[in-house]
Here is the input.
Amino acid sequence: MYSIGIPNNVQLIEQLTNKLSSLPVEIENPISKMHNYLAKKPYNVIKEIIESLSSEGDVVYDGFMGSGTTGYEALKSGRRFIGIDINKVSINFFKSVAGIYDMEKFDDLIAMLNQGVLKDIEQVYETICPECNRTAIIERESYDHVSNGEIKLKRVKYICHNCSPGRKTGIYIDSRKIDEDMLSSHINKAELYNDLFGKELLENKHIAIQPGAKLGDYFSLRGKIAIGLLRQAIEKLPDIPEKKLVQFTFSSSLHFFKLSDYKASSQMPYWKPQKNIVCRNPLPFFLKRSELIKDGLKYAENSGINFPPYKKVSDLLDSNMGSHIIHDSIISEASRKVPDHSVSLIITDPPYSDQVPYLEYTGLWDKILNLNNLSKDKLDKEIVVSYSPHRKKDSTRFMLELGKSIEEMGRVLESDGCLAMFYHDFSLKYWKEIIKTTQKAGLAFVSQVHIGRRLKSLKTVWNPNRTLDGSALVFFIKNKELFELQQPKETNIDKAEKIVKKKADEIIRKQDGKATSQQLYDLGVLNEVIKGNAIEILSTKYKSFIQMFRKWYDFEEGFWVSREK
Here is the structure.
């Protein structure tokens, strides 16, 4: 605890971190099910932060808005919200949820598709039942990779409604050649087919985009036709507000149009297994998504979220409720529209260096939905480390641009306002820069707590050097007195190492003589090092705490164990 005179928000943060340390995370709700956007944050954690560190009518701000969880929870809690994101997929998600629509008109548009193009797509997925020799519907196709990146059809899973007792599911080896001759009439209907799928993607082997890869490499022939037909039909729908919801349904279901693994579970859109590559019939997924979107919008309406964003920041600040969204830009530019000291609470989840190049990840959506996400200007502005040879995005530039964004957060935050920032990285280099930048922005560190994932991966246990399970949630406060108390004091590498060793020993003892890398980071090592102003000097000798742990402990079956007898 801090001495008397330190603002009440510090005590509130410490109480909050104690509560969050044992709070099971909840990510899925009707809104999150509307779209499979990357890196969704636990809504119950965001709710706790908002209700603990702000009051009704306060302005909550997120400069890396992503799937919009902070915004939804702010509006649900009676706060105002300002959100910024460079990614059009993110912006479309939030605006779709926050909009007001006539669900009967949305149903009418889906019915129009059902009576027209969806029947055409159903024909694309027709096959012959090997038992009754009548028409059956393909549920999924499986392929294997052959030479030169080509794929070969291996088997088909189908549904036959003609076989007794009325519905039969079967699997057979398809010996027919699935080529353009068979599907030529459908290809001719799918306008822009060749122009669309011949587009080249931005090379980045780190995310499985090989040199010369084209959009069409990630879809089967049937999948390409289905996308072409559906995209064309949606464009021709009546130009009413509910058309945006149909476009959002299309965006939300695209993940199931592409080639993927059996469960379609990978969040990496460009990854394909070598064998048993699956192409699904997308129709059931598209129709199911339309129902999930209706469920999500009903939830939003009942929660008070569907409040169309104001066009100007000034309009929002003059009101008692609502949101304003700034898109196609980054914080250091976009937040210039936000006045000094006008924000009570910032909750944000910035990019984690090279872990997720969001604009490149959404390349499939960009090409198919004409989002202009991969324009030269956007690719240059995005705050990220990218391994694409066509982008100059290294770690030095990443930290410089992230630093400018944090400085802007400090500018818009009111006195005694709080910043809650998620971050996920072992690298001491990045943590050093984050702490230096928050100090430059006049923000004082208060506390840190671990926020885990719902499901843990074995990779997080067996590979302690590369993987963290979940994120560190770090709290700062804009308070001059506390900031001055925390100004760096002289230290040396021996003292800094002792801080780490003392805390790590304590954690291992409390964990019955063994602890994972995650536990050492999150149960106090990172917290003590930041408070002890030791992170900068440690970063000059070590890349991560793992190197220090190796000096002092043995690593056995996923745990660090003391060498002392």
Summary: The CA atoms of residues 7 and 416 lie 7 Å apart.
